[in-house]
Amino acid sequence: MKLRVTKIITILAVFLTIVSASGVYATWYYTHGANPGNGEIQTGLNDFYYGPPETIYISKVEIVSNSSNITNLVQTPSLPTKLIVSAKIGASNSSITYKITVHNNTDITYWYLGIRPEPAIPSNSLLGISGGISITTKDKLQDSGYTFDTKDWVPPRTERDFYATYIFGNLAIGDITTMVDFRFGVQMDSVYDGFLKILNDKISNSGYNYLAQVFNDKYAQTGSDVIANVGEEKEIFNNLFGGDLYVDVNGVKTPVTVMVQRKDVDGTANGDSYSGSGAPSGCEYSLYISIPSQNEGDKATVYAVSYTCKNTGEDAGTWYQIGQLYEGTANVSDYGGVEDGAFDANSWKASPKEYNLGNGLVYKVGYQQGNHFEIMKSLSELMSARDSEFGNKINGNQLFKNVYNIVKANPNSQDPAIVNLRNAWNDIEPYFVIYNNGGTIWYDSNKWTRSEILPYIVHLADAYDYYLQVHG
Predict the structure, then answer these.
(1) What is the 3-state secondary structure (H, E, C) of 173-184?
(2) Rounded distance between C-alpha atoms, residue 204 and residue 25, angstroms
(3) Per residue in 92-124, pLDDT tens?
């Protein structure tokens, strides 16, 4: 029962975290850009808020070479590390090579994570397929293959150049527009993406069905709702992730502790159920990750995120993230009598952070002072919050009215920016009641938890940012 899923924490890997003067950082990327020399920089998912210009971003794009049968070529960087390329391709095997400069204006080392296409851009469907569009990232211009990859990094307060060669096959002739994110960061997000794939893998012998059975058996035997890659349970994680779990911290292969908990954290009926009469139901899967070598004293820095699924409707059984990735601490503890970098997942508390979703939508967690929602620290509190104050911010925010008006005014448009916006709006619209032809867009915080809508706001804000980049 071995599933050879990518070792997501090794891919995750290259650098789950870097310790700087101000602490341990999780992955983040922008949803809303600003001129890196002006104003405040706003970060998106995982979402720390910085003054200018604390991030890594593309500072320059230069054409090194391009085929003569490529015309109408336009390249537009989009903060922080996205590149939009538009061109008319006249013949198969035409190519463009760019020299891309990224500037790291932080005290944190960033690793290259790879390319992430924007799925709503039609031409992006050609990326990576035979006869479509290939993008090769290279450390040096003369290199023939992928030499700028997840082993490459950008040190603090420095610039680094790399090269990207686009090759257009026979399916990519004509007018083409691509938008890809040359992603940099700590690779924690790869872990969470990989775990989500496991939850939605209903076919293999070491996907969701295997994981659910592990929890059912352990709960029946011990009453425990947690598994960890500690002691005898390491074999479970080998089956799920395909090997031991490490991260690369400044070039050093470093073990990580990963715990998974199946427990109701959002207070809804959505989620999974244990087998047996009277057993817990409506359970989410929450993933906790820590680097034992970075622990201080009796506290471990631990990142946590939760996933749930709907039990009815056409999306029933499909797992998705709720809330956001939260940084916190947990008590260092043994696990089943084994220390080995373990911590107590039930003791996890959120660290004080301000999370910025863009367009003025901000919320705080983990603060001792402030209102009821700001002092929430446990994962259950964060995921089950029906935050009326945040709901009022949503109801008064122009972002949703702007998007509604654009989508309704262009119902059949195939413009990539509008398609992207429409898809994001369709995902978030069920959470709203709309009056007066969009004059009033109302989010009912008594009906929905804050964690349910947060990922959709991030998606919508990102789509709106892209629309503004293209259409001004």
Answers:
(1) CEEEEEEEEEEE
(2) 34
(3) 999 999 999 998 887 666 778 888 887 778 888
Beta-carbon count within 10 A of 317 CB: 14
- pLDDT tens by residue, 34-44: 233 333 333 22
Q: What's the rounded Cα separation, in Å, for the pair 228 and 214?
A: 12
Same domain, 68 and 165: yes
Beta pairing, strands 252-255 & 257-263? unpaired
Taking the chain (472 residues) in runs of 10, the rounded mean pLDDT of each run is 27 29 27 30 30 70 95 90 93 95 78 81 88 93 87 79 95 93 70 80 93 96 94 91 66 79 94 90 95 85 92 87 91 88 94 83 85 87 91 91 95 87 93 90 90 90 78 72
| 413 conformational bin, left if phi > 0, alpha if psi -120 to 50, beta if neither | beta
Round to whole Å and give the CA distance between 232 and 370. Answer: 43
Q: Does residue 7 lie in a domain region?
A: no
Residues 6+ apart with CB under 8 A from 259: 226, 227, 228, 229, 287, 288, 343, 345
Would you state the structure tokens that stand for residue 420, as one six-digit string? 């992207």
Q: Tens digits of per-residue pLDDT, 384-429?
A: 999 988 999 999 899 999 999 999 999 999 887 898 899 999 999 9
Domain-terminating residue out of 168, 185, 202:
185
CA–CA distance, 277 with 258 (Å, rounded to integer): 30
The number of distinct structural domains making up the chain is 3
- Classify residue 294: in a domain, yes or no: yes
Residue 225's CB: how many other CB atoms inside 10 A?
19
12 lies in a domain?
no
Give the residue from 351, 382, 408 where a domain finishes. 351
Is the same domain home to 148 and 34? yes
In a shared domain, residues 196 and 323: yes
Residue 382 is assigned to a structural domain of this protein: no
What is the C-alpha end-to-end distance of the chain, expressed in Å? 53
Same domain, 215 and 305: yes
Q: What is the pTM of this model?
A: 0.65
Same domain, 125 and 204: no
CB 328 within 8 A of CB 348: yes
Helix (H) or strand (E) holding 236: helix 234-241
Residue 178 sits in the same domain as residue 215:
no
Q: Within this chain, do residues 155 and 196 fall inside the same structural domain, yes or no?
A: no
How far is Cα 127 from Cα 117, in angstroms, rounded to an integer? 8
Whether omega for the bond prior to residue 53 falls within 30 degrees of 0, making it cis, is: yes
Domain of 273 in residue numbering reads as 188-351
Q: What stretches of 311-417 adopt beta strand conformation (E)?
A: 319-331, 349-350, 353-358, 361-365
- Residues 33 and 54 occupy one common structural domain: yes
